[in-house]
Amino acid sequence: MKKVKKKVTRKPPSKKKELTIYIYNVVEDEWSFLSSIQPIEKRYDLINDCNLSSECYLFANASESEFIYISPIEIPNSFKNYFQSITANKKVDIYVPQMKTSLICKDLYTDKQLFGEIVSRAKKYKKVTLISYATSPEFLELKERMIQLGINVLTPETPELENAWTVNFFGSKSGIRQLAQQSRAAEPDFIMPDGVICVGKLDAAKIAANRYIKEKGVVLKTNKGSGGHGVLIFRDGELPKDYKSCEKRIYELLSEDGYWERFPIIIEELINVNYSAPGAFPNIEFKIHKNGKIEMLYYCVMMVTKEGKYYGLDIHEDVINERTAARIIDTGYYIAEQYSEAGYRGHFDIDMIASNNKHIYVCESNTRNTGGTDIYKLIYGLYGEDFMSDVYVLNRNNYKFNNQESISFKKIIDIIQPILYDKKKKEGLILSSASILEYNQLLYTILGKNKKRAYELQEQLYKLLEVFGEAK
Fold first, then answer.
1. Residue 310 lies in a domain
2. What residues does the ATP-grasp domain cover (predicted)?
């Protein structure tokens, strides 16, 4: 009798549960503004500055055991290993698209080899969670292309296509100002500095000069800016006192950058602020979930120069008094409700100013991951939901070395070893970036049991860094 081979049926390999893909598309988000900057060398410098923060946002995935990270710049293995030594992450694959058009999502889906590799891997998972620094048209196109290729894509931090307008509208200076004007009766505490919106630098110079002469101060802002660019602040004595000369000088300054002609211009009253006061610039961050549920993540105080440039933050429940905290939380929730109702989804923050006259003004809103999102996710992963009371967080990006040659990441690690974050003690310093060292700068987060301890650790850092000479 002839033996018949038994047919063996093999089950297809079962799919893994979930894969997270995070895309750091900061330049893509700010492209309308950055692409207007002239000369082109200045534009490339600003783009480079934006991209240098890529390593920081690895920490926005601190609680992910496995994820793919799409970066605009190469991230050295030494920093990846350092990131993994601090967080719960076991596996991260970092990819950099070959094309460099500044639209990273587009660069990804037009990079046939890389996109094909990511799609093949994504198909091994039941679902893929796609998250970006900001929702952009290119990000939405990437999502659509992945869905068409048979991948079950979830975007929990992104509005639906028909509500994507909320990103640029509420994230613009004019959009949040319109919301404030509409909300006067419903939320009297939602106030902004008195101001107007105009188009064209000629009219802007006339309006701003008039305000400056009357009030001895004025602020001009582009509708969309980037990292302190697109803001002009004039205080008493900084402009001519007669109207015609003042208008001429403002017009000259507006003519130095093309973006003043390209976007609406907001002319505001100058709010008097005590820059040495610890709570002069409160900020609050929220997340609106896919179902519209609003979650307050944390509040903090921002560090801002007199020129309006951000350089860090402090997070702790006591960074502002109870009255101020209650006020910014109340106003924040009201704004979050309006965003949620309009269809916005994902992270956003609200920058505020605590003035000398005791008023708290809303300054702007960033509808994206923020300067604190990565820090929040890191400390939440390390300390849990009570982090606001359990740890004092100090983050800075303004330390500059006075060296001719850049300092290596390994060298810095060796020098500051005594104060590096200790998992047992649950305190210390965490470096946010290695690439920034090439430009003789240091980005760091310090975690201490209280404010006194956090600032002590910062003083120890300065002391240890004296081997490199005086700071710039």
1. no
2. 182-396
